Amino acid sequence: MRAGIKVLALTLPLCACTWVKLTDAGAGVEQATPNQIADCRLIGNVSATTQDRVVLQRGRGKVAEELIVLARNEAATLGGDTIVPAGPMGEGHQNFNVYRCDGN
User: Which of 72, 66, 67, 65 is nearest to 99 (CA)?
Assistant: First the structure.
């Protein structure tokens, strides 16, 4: 029983960790809603995936945060400055549309 408690105590902090870091280029990409991109040009889409489970189910908010960071980082490599979710998050995966808004 003690061994189980020790394993749990060591793995619980991992469930809350953020594994993904925002790049300098990704920092220049904003997240928007469909209403906010009327004057923007769609330039592509990205698919973001992260672990939603590390021994235990990770928090939905933390997983969503990582998906957004991954999408922002990838959108920057496409020359985008704005992302909009293209569908719901599910099992550590989400698609995003990438836009170029040129300062809008």
Answer: 72
Assign domain 2-100 to its CATH superfamily.
Answer: Hypothetical protein apc22750. Chain B (3.30.110.70)
Q: Distance between CA 104 and CA 14 in Å, rounded?
A: 38
Q: How far is CA 54 from CA 22, 39, 74, 90, 99, in A?
A: 21, 40, 24, 16, 33
pLDDT in tens, 27-80: 999 999 999 999 999 999 999 988 765 545 566 778 889 999 999 999 999 999
Quote the pTM value: 0.76
Tokens of 83: 């992302």
For the chain, which residues make up each domain, given as ranges?
Answer: 2-100
